[in-house]
Write a structure and sequence with these properties.
25 helices
Length: about 675
């Protein structure tokens, strides 16, 4: 049975290291002897129940770790449940009892190091590349003990881009390959999964129309020829800094993906051609593999995957690189330059790996960087350090084993603590608040001014300290928590954070300040027209950093509170930042009174942040039209049962669409908040 372990790591292991003794780390361990028969049966019942209802409710409820924590703490709810009948008055005492009951239950779910565990998965193209990487490197068995790969598949036989989405070529192809690697035959899998998935692919012309990222992974795996992919020249990393198209101007996620992809492309790396690879070549293509004209499939993309069509200027750029540049760079004497550039690219990869303790910025980058290190030296320490950090991405639920985008420990804990503080139950849940306070205070430090990185000293990450990547709304929420705790008795919640560390956090928030708007990871300084060179067909706005309502609103709330407590520190800068940030939020309001949310679903989410930011800045229903319009939007969008819901489809369509299933909003809001 699987067991969640917290703050787990071996400081004597030469291939794993931590900046804070692994505080915040959450990893799953498989122990066949763990749990009683009754407990094991409870887990199997949860898994079977999910399977039976997978088309109705596609998100899991994270039951496995919740059952484990409540069992280990021997939690028994002692506050009686209250029910309000139709027409019955909701009194203060009834509401308070319900709140206390929820707060005590939520406190019981806190981990021993002070954070709240949570899954942040959902996209279905995360796990297969990791499995493919481990298959290529010969290390699949070292991490696959007890693996249970539950097929979250659509009724048409395919897999969606995420659990709620329609079937796509990239997810269906990668998950089909993953199933075959894990031992399912061409006609295997529960509910005839393999055959149905293969039929979905072949009915749409085979895998030649897989998007660009899929073409890259298939080329690596030996199921595609690199001639069928658009060029990814690693020479890009030598561009002079004055050019607009320069690594320093790229969104950090895009930059981190491009590094290992360009390295593997520059090496034209192909994994071992095993009997399984040869079988897959026959299963996934309509024509014989050796008869495919690869140059004709470079620009193909299945209509199910096409969200961002490439503009003509981008295709012309790819064609120029393909026809003119690549033939030169792969021949003497220019191939000498390529070899040098590959060394420079690996230097960047190693730098990023070291500064994230080999977690990397996210799961897409993790598999690619790990493979690049293996290609450079299969027996080297770099690759072994990557292997040691794979558990940081694995999550297990009643729906099976998944790969997370990255952890969300800091983000979840910041909002959990603010919710518990709002309950005003300090005398009842003091130990919970103290543990949470100690966890949040343990924020990252460091100042990386080279390798295209922004400063990070004083920031918080989205995950844990070892992750190392500053995120600015997480920094704002972490700062807000520490400021709120500084107003409380240290005998109850622990010592407050030192002013110098608070100043560092304010400094990094102000470092992002441009015209009042704040980005998520790094300053949004690059021209937006660079987005026309976005090479991915299934993402938009991925090339450069953008400004976000949510990040800006979080910063307003933190800076307003900081200004009250430390009125003399950078007074004018903070005042100007708040004033311009309010103006930015007001300008971003939609005609219906809502705000678009980029990091959750979607208009409900964005409106929640925007109204919170405006209210913190002193705006009210009386003096602010934007607040009145925002409140009106929320009142109009309320459901008949009193709650709110929204479909994930609001995000790509950029207009509010009411929920398809109630679980959609619950799932995405839970993983983000």
């Amino acid at each position: 049975m699987w067991k969640l372990k917290v703050a787990d790591g071996d400081n004597n292991d030469p291939y794993i290291f931590s900046t804070n003794n692994f505080i915040g780390r959450q990893v799953w361990e498989f122990d066949p002897d763990y749990g009683t028969r009754e407990e094991q049966a409870e887990v199997e019942a949860a898994r079977e129940n999910f399977w039976k209802n997978r088309h109705l409710i596609k998100c899991n409820s994270d039951l496995l770790w919740r059952m484990q924590f409540l069992r280990e703490k021997n939690f028994k709810q002692t506050i009686p449940q209250v029910k309000v009948g139709d027409g019955e008055e909701i009194t203060y005492e009834i509401a308070k009892t319900a709140m206390r009951r929820g707060a005590h239950f939520f406190s019981a779910l806190q981990a021993s190091d002070g954070h709240w565990p949570a899954e942040i998965a959902g996209p279905l193209y995360f796990l297969p590349p990791l499995v493919m990487c481990l298959y290529i490197t010969g290390h699949l068995d070292t991490v696959s003990q007890g693996i249970t790969y539950t097929v979250i598949r659509n009724e048409d036989g395919g897999w969606g881009f995420h659990i709620e989405g329609h079937s796509t070529m990239i997810s269906t192809t990668l998950n089909y390959i993953c199933m075959r690697i894990l031992g399912e035959g061409p006609d295997g899998g529960r509910d005839n999964a393999s055959a149905r998935g293969r039929k979905w692919i072949r009915d749409r012309g085979g895998v030649t129309s897989i998007p660009s990222w899929g073409k890259t992974w298939l080329s690596i795996f030996g199921l595609f020829d690199w001639l069928g992919s658009n060029p990814m020249p690693p020479e890009f990393w030598l561009f002079p800094s004055f050019l607009p198209i320069h690594p320093a101007n790229m969104l950090c996620n895009c930059r981190m993906v491009s590094m290992p992809m360009s390295y593997l492309y520059g090496r034209r790396f192909v994994g071992p051609i095993t009997p399984l690879v040869l079988e897959l070549r026959e299963e996934l293509f309509l024509q014989p593999y050796n008869e495919i004209i690869w140059k004709k499939v470079r620009h193909l993309c299945a209509k199910e995957d096409l969200y961002y069509p490439h503009p003509l200027i981008q295709d012309l750029m790819w064609d120029t690189l393909y026809i003119c540049t690549e033939p030169l760079l792969t021949r003497w004497p220019f191939n000498k330059l390529r070899q040098k550039v590959l060394e420079v690219t690996m230097k960047h990869i190693h730098y990023e790996d070291e500064n994230s303790r080999y977690i990397t910025i996210g799961c897409v980058e993790k598999s690619l960087c790990m493979l690049a290190c293996w290609v450079e030296n299969p027996n080297g320490d770099y690759f072994k350090k990557h292997l040691a950090r794979i558990p940081d991405y694995i999550w297990v639920g009643e729906d099976g084993i998944k790969m997370q985008g990255f952890g969300s420990q800091e983000w979840d804990t910041a909002f959990a603590l603010q919710a518990l503080l709002a309950c005003n139950l300090t005398n009842e849940i003091g130990p919970t608040l103290k543990k949470g306070h100690e966890y949040v205070k343990d924020n990252p430090s460091g100042d990386f001014k080279s390798m295209f990185r922004h400063i990070s000293k004083g920031s918080w990450t989205f995950a844990d300290q070892d992750h190392g990547w500053q995120v600015f709304d997480c920094t704002a929420e972490g700062l807000k928590c520490c400021l709120l705790f500084s107003l409380m008795l240290p005998e109850i919640v622990g010592a407050k954070m030192e002013p110098g560390r608070l100043y560092d956090s304010v400094n990094i928030l102000l470092s992002l300040y441009k015209n009042g708007d704040l980005a998520a990871w790094e300053p949004a300084t690059a021209p937006k027209w660079l987005e026309m060179f976005n090479p991915t067909e299934f993402f938009a706005n991925t090339i450069v950093e953008h400004e976000y309502v949510e990040c800006t609103a979080s910063a307003i709330q933190a800076l307003v509170l900081f200004k009250k407590l430390y009125p003399g520190h950078r007074k004018n800068e903070i005042h100007n930042c708040i004033t311009n940030a309010v103006r930015f939020i007001e300008d971003k309001q939609m005609p219906d009174g809502s705000w678009y949310g980029s990091w959750g679903i979607c208009f409900t989410y964005g409106t929640w942040f925007a109204l919170g930011g405006l209210a913190a800045a002193g705006k009210t229903n009386k003096n602010c039209l934007a607040i009145r319009r925002g409140v009106e939007f929320l009142l109009k969008s309320q459901r008949d049962d009193g709650g709110w819901g929204e479909s994930y489809a609001s995000c790509p369509n950029e207009k509010r669409i009411r929920e398809i299933t109630v679980c959609t909003l619950r799932y995405y809001h839970y993983t983000r908040q």
